[in-house]
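Thread title: Can someone regenerate the structure for this chain?

I was given the following input by a collaborator and told the matching structure tokens would be attached. They weren't. Posting the sequence so someone can regenerate them.
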Amino acid sequence: MEEKTLKVLEYDKIIERLKAHATSDAGRSLCAKLKPSSNYRHIREWQRNTSDALRRITQKGSGISFAGVREIGDILKRLEIGGTLSQTELIKVSSVLIVTERAQSFGKTDSEEQKEDSLSEIFDMLTPLVNINREITRCIISDDEMADDASPGLLNVRQTIKRTADSVHEVMQSKLNSCRDYLTDAIITQRDGRYCLPVKSEYKAKVPGMVHDASSTGLTLFIEPMAVVSLNNKLRELAAEEQQEIEKVLIALSESLMPYTDVIADNIKLLKKLDMIFAKAKFSGELDAVEPQFSKNRSIDIREARHPLIARDKVVPISMRLGDDFSTLVVTGPNTGGKTVSLKTVGLLTLMAQAGLHIPAAADSVMGIYDDVYADIGDEQSIEQNLSTFSAHMTNIVHILGKADAASLCLFDELCSGTDPTEGAALGIAILNFLHNMQTRTMATTHYSEIKLYALETDGVENACCEFDVATLKPTYRLLIGIPGKSNAFAISKRIGLPDYIIDDAKDRIAAENESFEDIISKLNEDRSRTAKSMQEAENYRKEAEQLKERLRKKEEKLEAGREKLLRDAKEEARRILLNAKETADEAIKNINRYGAESDQSAAEAERDKIRKNLKDTSSGSSIVVKGPSKPVSPKKLQIGDEVRIMSMGGVTAKLTSLPDKDGNVFVQMGFMNSKVRVRDIELADTESSGSGIKKNRQNNTPQSGYTKSFGAKALSVRPEVNLIGMTTDEALPELEKYLDDAYLAGLNSVRVVHGRGTGALKNMVHQRLKKLKYVKDFRLGVFGEGDTGVTIVNFK
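Best answer:
Regenerated them for you:
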């Protein structure tokens, strides 16, 4: 891309805003060099990098700082030739390695949400040299300070220096106290690194020692007492030793880095690249931009595009297409109507997209990829009238025509203006026709009616206009494709205050065909406004319908989910109640049989009341309602000996032993138990009639009901074992439960459950269920002769 085009389209301002998001000087330097590419593969990779960086920032809640990345090429050169680095240089290398480690940690994709992306490979290529960097940071505290424990030798020297310095201070303090009258000030000072006392010149002889300095007046001499000369000499020697030990540490640290100069250089390149990528992502977030799609035929279809350099609350989005149905677009309309802004928006977004930057537009926007973008836009052309001369324009246009081809995008603002309108229009048409024949994608703004007519008459050339509201004398800045625009010079002039007689005179001077053409344009604009309004209303209705449809779908899903939950809960509750009823019934039958054998009627009646209370509590605590009599019986038709069913006990058959009392209660015989029930809880059994229609047992006088007969029949029909082999656990569970219930009710003491060996799944299921049954006394695996471990022996209580 030509530098002139980048400057005209204000690409440099985009780069400055991009640099503001980089966090290192090296990253900002790389951003400054960013130029649009024409390589499709590179552009797609850059766009993916930006999108993936933006996704990582969103997932982690923040970006990553690359502060500390420096250009240290000269330092690495010194290492390559075996040089020793200073503390400051080592700190710069360490800074790069610290950022490398931080970036590598940020780039890890351990969680399920953080999947591999186009940046994963870059992060994986980073080599932080953790152990070497830890040694550097351990030894070097600052540019001019090294840790005491950087090496054993340095530690020993510094400890000796401290002891010697303490001795010097003790001697000097003693000397100061003894010579206080001879001193100008009672202080210990240093001259040339040696400890001295400020002695009055007249008392020089009183303080033996070496004179190192004198005051400007000559009244004070700085004397090193003889008692500390040797100690000061020793401190000088120790300081030299300390420097030697520091040099040894620097040599060791430098040597540890020498094999990794290429690794460090690669780290810097990768970190600079990542800094720029994440700057692009942050810039995308600032603009609320999106990754565009790219066409293969260099067509453009941008929707709701915003100029990135205009404030979000002021910019008006435009939609524009070019390259599919037409290769040339002629934009007309009044001055300050937004033509130049539209032109710059298309050009600048093209450059941004080809530089890997997201564009501020709708997500389905499509951009073309061009080898070159050319622009002839005068200075200060954001909104103002072109101030360039015609010759300057033509010089630029000649340059463009000499280089443009089918892979170019050409942008012209006020094509061929600044000269005779007739000649300018003819030149403009010729230029557009030349580019059109080369299939160059071209967008031009103009006021010439002749060029509007050319666009109407030529295939592959389309008109467009920037909408202008004459009533308010304000542009709407919306770009409308398919309709030529009016300059609205008369309307604007009248609105501003030009006298009507001048405007009328001007109208009379316009040729009839030109006036007719302008009238047609006005009518087209009015029709378009009405159509656009109708389409917008239809679109609003469609969106509203879609929203209603979506709300209805979500409501149906919510209702369906609620219904399924209710069904699951109801089934689970029903299963719980049935299991509880089974256990209650099992326990009750066992007790009833025991009480009957013992002729304990009061205990049996108490058990009956307990069952009734349990059923009542179960019924009140659930939504399952106990079924009442389907054929209610009249108390007057009941006779002693009638067979009835007690519906509150699940339809158990019993024999009537008394007539209803005043409260509507009767006594019935169930096996050995005589119990009181309410008339509304019973119905006549469906049997052959005798007398009152009730079956009589005439074989003996002992009351006998279907209740006891049913257990007798059950006892005869239950086998002593059940075979579950060949079933799944889901199939076997209900079969096992039914068999065990029948066996227990039949009065069997023990049974065999055959489940086989196999995988052990059936055996485990059987044992788990047996542990939960209250009427099971114990169980065990079979022994030799009983079926071994393929059989479980169950004993009932």
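Residues 512-598 form the longest helix (87 residues).
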